[in-house]
Amino acid sequence: MKNKQVLFCILLCLLLTSCGSVKTDSSETVFWQMDSAISVKLYGEKEAIDSAFQEAGQILSLKDSLLSATQEGSPISEFNAAPAGEIIISSELIKIFRLSLMIESLTDGAFSVTVQPLLLFWQQAEANGEIDESKLADALRLTGQSHIKLTENSIIKDSDKVAVNFGGIGKGYAIDTVKSFLSSQTGISGGIISCTSNVVVFGEKPDGSAFTVAVRDPINPEDVLPFYLYPDTGTALSISGDYERFFTVDSEKYGQILNPSNGYPPDNGLRSVAVFAENAAIADALSTALTVMGEEKGRKLQESGRIAFEALFIYEDSYSYTDGFEKYMTAPGN
């Protein structure tokens, strides 16, 4: 199928203004990590902000090295290259694996970190200019959490070729970690961190207003949809969809969000999904999963209460949302 790219992205010119009577400083910087521009805007005392920026950059660099599937010598690259059997990993990676496997279970496999063989298949298909269904079947046989098992300090894989990729949750996890650090720093009153289609906020703006993120309307591209983030009700937003990245095979575009059950991009009519959740890692993974699951299954998961989130489902010419999503689209006081 041929995908049409939609102009739907989080604008880095976030609407963060403060009233003139407040003396709190604000500053913004951008880091390049995880193959993405990561913007951090902070409010607080100037010296505290300058120091926090330095530490934030180091944290992001460490998370990039921890989770990269392509960086030589990274724990994930070493895991992917290891033969079948038990591989000792850090407690932090155990934590990320555990969260990923939990979300895979909740979404009936619509989200899975074991999709690396599928991603490698599509990279090869793009290079060869054709889709080899037998090789796709080989990749599918390596996909799913049944191929890995967690212990207290290790992970066991059942085949040399089992490999993982944290692209569907890693950026969210990284900015969560930065948020956790920044929110604990004396002299920092609040801030907003954004990485491509993931945003997380903490603390307060100087004027006490909500953090506002402007998103281009996919139905009316010249308009924007404002979303309001409140640290006490839902601090993270993630958007996934077929507008982001593609594989091109024989002039046909295939979105890089893949359905782990058949190896192809989902074909359910959704252009993208926006998710609000308690943290960016969960929002990141769920926006990917719901893009694969479709609206009906996504709503059933949300209504089950097994994991807390609100979602906006975006189609070619319409959108709908869960009952609790509307509060994020309503300006304070309205």
Structure explained in plain terms:
With 334 residues, the chain is an alpha+beta fold. The chain has a domain at 75-157: ApbE-like superfamily (T-fold), CATH 1.10.3980.10. It has helices spanning 46-67, 75-81, 91-106, 116-128, 133-140, 170-182, 280-293, 295-304; strands at residues 25-33, 36-44, 85-88, 148-150, 154-157, 188-195, 198-203, 211-216, 224-229, 236-241, 246-249, 252-255, 270-277, 310-315, 319-321. It has an 8-stranded antiparallel sheet. Strands 3-5-4 form a 3-stranded antiparallel sheet, with helices on one face. A hairpin with a 2-residue loop joins β6 (188-195) and β7 (198-203).
Summarize the structure.
The protein has a domain at 75-157: Orthogonal Bundle (T-fold). It is 31% helix and 26% strand. The protein has helices at 46-67, 75-81, 91-106, 116-128, 133-140, 170-182, 280-293, 295-304, and strands at 25-33, 36-44, 85-88, 148-150, 154-157, 188-195, 198-203, 211-216, 224-229, 236-241, 246-249, 252-255, 270-277, 310-315, 319-321.
